[in-house]
Task: inverse folding
């Protein structure tokens, strides 16, 4: 495998994107199915202490992961922009981007301190359900994007028979190609 500078940068960006997505999705799954149910069975003062401790520690990971996913996602889109057919790639990217914004907002709200978003934190289980479902959808959309149809490359012969086929010329004794027929016109 030969990794030039551009290819290495694209590979590193892809790894960072996946790592950021794993962090966000994995934390939503852990919190929804392990932390949240455990806290619900604990006394209120224990819940408050644990929630505050997790929020303060996890905030940096959530915000860092969001930044990494945004930056690498835009870079990865830019890197593949010229090689993929716009449809369906751009439509899938647009949907993925919008759903990711919802995930980012919910994740930020759940680890934030804003009094205006306290009702979301009070219903954390509901919003964690939304984030888990959206994370699964985002992973599926990312897989679709990876296998998006590519544009034909300049000069590539996809079907030789479509490009060069025998045609009759004005001289019935000779058979030329379609390019000969165009030249003779």
Result:
């Amino acid at each position: 495998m030969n990794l030039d500078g551009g290819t290495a940068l694209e590979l590193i960006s892809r790894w960072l994107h996946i790592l950021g997505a794993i962090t966000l999705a994995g934390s939503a799954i852990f919190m929804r199915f392990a932390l949240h149910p455990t806290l619900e069975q604990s006394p209120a003062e224990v819940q408050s202490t644990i929630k505050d401790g997790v929020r303060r520690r996890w905030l940096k990971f959530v915000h860092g992961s969001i930044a990494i996913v945004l930056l690498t996602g835009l870079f990865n889109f830019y890197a593949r922009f010229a090689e993929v057919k716009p449809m369906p790639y751009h439509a899938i990217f647009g949907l993925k981007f919008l759903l990711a914004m919802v995930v980012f907002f919910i994740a930020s709200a759940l680890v934030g301190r804003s009094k205006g978003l306290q009702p979301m934190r009070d219903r954390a289980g509901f919003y964690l359900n939304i984030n888990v479902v959206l994370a699964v959808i985002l992973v599926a959309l990312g897989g679709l994007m990876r296998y998006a149809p590519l544009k034909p490359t300049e000069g590539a012969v996809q079907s030789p028979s479509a490009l060069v086929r025998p045609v009759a010329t004005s001289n019935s004794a000779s058979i030329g190609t379609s390019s000969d027929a165009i030249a003779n016109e």
In short: Helices lie at 5-40, 44-80, 86-111, 118-122, 124-146, 160-163, 178-184. Residues 156-185 form one domain.
